[in-house]
Amino acid sequence: MRSTMMSAFLVLAASVPDARADLLVVLNKSDHEAALVDPSSLEVKAKLPTGRGPHEVAVSPDGALAYVSNYGVFGVFRDGEQRSEPGNSLTVLDLGRRAVRDTFDLGGYSRPHGILVSADGSRLWVTCEGSKAVLELDAKSGAIRNAWNTGQEVSHMVAATPDEKKLYVANIRSGTVTVIERAGGRVTSVPTGEGAEGIDVSRDGREVWVGNRASNTISVLGVAGDSVIASFPSGGEMPIRVKFTPDGRQAWVSNARSASVTVFDVAGRRLLATIAVGAVPVGIQMSPDGKRAFVACTNDDVVKVIDVGARRVVRDLATGREPDGMAWAAPRRAK
Predict the structure, then answer these.
(1) 120 within a domain of the structure (yes/no)
(2) Would you call 331 helix, strand, or coil by DSSP?
(3) 259 falls within a domain
(4) CB of 309 within 8 A of CB of 291?
């Protein structure tokens, strides 16, 4: 009897998700879902439904929740297949239970895209392209606490300084970056280049790097003066995302049209390497230890796993149709 009970217990324990394990969250735009991937084995552990055309995802600091922007457009880079049903909601996923926890209705604010979670987990910031706005939401209830009008066309991605005093928004059609000073509410916009889209703030909080997808350039803004202090070629065609490595020494750029990732030395703004990946690379996610980079190649329906030190693709990860936005969930562990 004891042996039978023990066997039953082991089977039950094996079926319960390990809430302490890291997860890579990958959004599949054309499947309207989030894939939860074990980053060690690269096994897809679960798939959870989202709204239509999920594009970007951010995870709470404790690794418990994932917030998904339901943009509403999918088949984005596939000729003749693009579908547009403007969304106005966020899906909240409980990663421990592997279930949908909530849906935040944004009302008249449409096409939510870029999304961030504050360092304390209490607030969300999300761009709403259809409304030329950036919202600040209560992360628990989804209530809108603040709204800033960018006055720019296609306010797409958002990044924050480490102290969270400023938000930087890339505006594709306007070719600008909007600077939002949260404390006073001041909003200004700075021209960078045609098709400003990919954006990230350096780890020291001193610079903002922007990929200008139509001019194939990278612009660097100095945070102190909020002006362009450098501009140089992206090393590929259609630079669409920019991501700093965890140590802040390199910037990785996905070039959608040339199916490549370019790697830059941040201090010298020097091109170090070009890595061939798959068709239409967009989203980039770094592992916290900086050893691996995950690049979502949307038109190949695959995520490329890259050895950062060797700068080469080591694995293909199939999560679903049209993967794009990704985030890393690292649950807090007892000390």
Answers:
(1) yes
(2) coil
(3) yes
(4) yes
The answer to whether position 94 is within a domain reads yes
Considering its fold, how many domains does the chain have in total?
A: 1
* Residues 6+ away with beta carbon under 8 Å from 243: 200, 251, 252, 253, 284, 285, 286, 293
pTM above 0.85, yes or no: yes
E runs forming strands in 161-226: 166-171, 176-181, 186-191, 196-201, 207-212, 217-222
The overall average pLDDT reported for the chain is 93
Q: Contacts by 306-311 with C-beta closer than 8 Å and gap 24+?
A: 306/261, 306/275, 306/277, 308/245, 311/263, 311/272, 311/273, 311/275
Structure tokens at 196: 């400003």
- Phi, psi for residue 130 in degrees, rounded to 5: -65, -15
- What CATH number does residue 137 fall under? 2.130.10.10
Cβ-contact 105, 127 below 8 angstroms: no
With CA atoms as reference, report the closest residue to 104 among 116, 88, 127.
88
Q: 42-70, pLDDT tens digit by residue?
A: 999 999 999 999 999 999 999 999 999 99
